[in-house]
């Protein structure tokens, strides 16, 4: 989705860096790459400058940044004027994909080990698209309903045509086990996912 949206951007837009392999896809398509993602010092508040002195880290937009952080940078008025959307994924499928992305069987042995080591905390989900537990985006789409989502997003953005994703799927090289999650997860692993991602499940009405 980030790669596809890059086609619509111009020199003044913010584009955050993604993985090297995904950047190669974006570059091959001739789309703009990372730009304008570091906040200009002129936009720093006094507290931001103080934090900079102690942390030596510049404020920046980054991949998977939370709504709360974006709003604090661009301000309430600009934030509210934007059309904002995100995707949520079936939690069981998401857990398996994350497991493989973070090393899979070779590193963790079993998915249960990965989960019990805090692996699912890498994806903040609900905390990213809510502010003080209130939904902070206009639409949350299901990853599994991508075709319908693309139509809706394109309409909301007034594109005049349907946004299309790159033919080469990004981040597809990690997960080798393509079985349905019901054939992969143990009852214990399911229960752990149910607890950790309970809010996401309830919001999107996901069932096992």
What is the gist of this entry?
With 208 residues, the protein is mainly alpha-helical. The chain is built from 12 helices and 4 strands, in the order H-H-H-H-H-E-H-H-H-E-E-E-H-H-H-H. It has helices at 2-6, 20-28, 46-55, 67-74, 76-81, 91-101, 104-108, 111-116, 146-157, 181-184, 187-196, 198-204, and strands spanning 85-88, 130-131, 134-135, 139-142.
Word description of this protein:
This protein is mainly α. It has helices at 2-6, 20-28, 46-55, 67-74, 76-81, 91-101, 104-108, 111-116, 146-157, 181-184, 187-196, 198-204, and strands spanning 85-88, 130-131, 134-135, 139-142. The protein contains twelve helices and four strands. Helices cover 45% and strands 6% of the residues. The model has no long low-confidence stretch (mean pLDDT 91). The strands form two sheets. A two-stranded parallel sheet has the order 1-4. The two termini are 26 Å apart. It is globular, with a radius of gyration of 19 Å.
The total beta strand count reads 4
The gyration radius over C-alpha positions equals 19 Å
Judged by helices, strands and strand pairing, the structural class is: mainly alpha
Order of helices and strands: HHHHHEHHHEEEHHHH
How much β-strand is present in the residues? 5-15%
Shape: globular
Helix content: 40-55%
Largest sheet: 2 strands, parallel
Unreliable stretches (pLDDT < 50, length at least 5) are: none
The count of helical stretches stands at: 12
Major sheet: order of its strands? 1-4
Average pLDDT level:
91
Q: What is the CA–CA distance across the termini?
A: 26 Å
């Amino acid at each position: 989705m980030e790669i596809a949206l890059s086609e619509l951007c111009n020199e003044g837009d913010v584009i955050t860096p993604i993985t090297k392999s995904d950047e190669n896809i974006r570059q091959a398509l001739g789309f703009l790459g990372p730009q304008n993602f570091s906040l200009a010092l002129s936009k720093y508040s006094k507290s931001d400058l103080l934090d900079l002195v102690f942390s030596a880290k510049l404020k920046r937009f980054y991949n998977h940044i939370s709504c709360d952080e974006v709003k604090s940078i661009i301000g309430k008025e600009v934030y509210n004027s934007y059309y904002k959307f995100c995707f949520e994924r079936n939690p069981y499928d998401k857990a398996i994909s994350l497991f493989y992305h973070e090393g899979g069987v070779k590193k963790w042995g079993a998915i249960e080990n990965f989960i019990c080591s805090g692996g699912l905390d890498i994806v903040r989900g609900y905390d990213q698209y809510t502010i003080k537990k209130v939904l902070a985006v206009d639409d949350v789409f299901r990853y599994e309903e991508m075709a319908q989502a693309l139509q809706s997003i394109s309409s909301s953005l007034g594109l005049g045509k349907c946004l299309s994703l790159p033919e080469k799927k990004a981040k597809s090289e990690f997960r080798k086990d393509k079985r349905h999650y019901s054939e992969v997860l143990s009852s214990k692993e399911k229960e752990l996912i149910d607890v950790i991602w309970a809010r996401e499940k309830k919001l999107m009405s996901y069932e096992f």
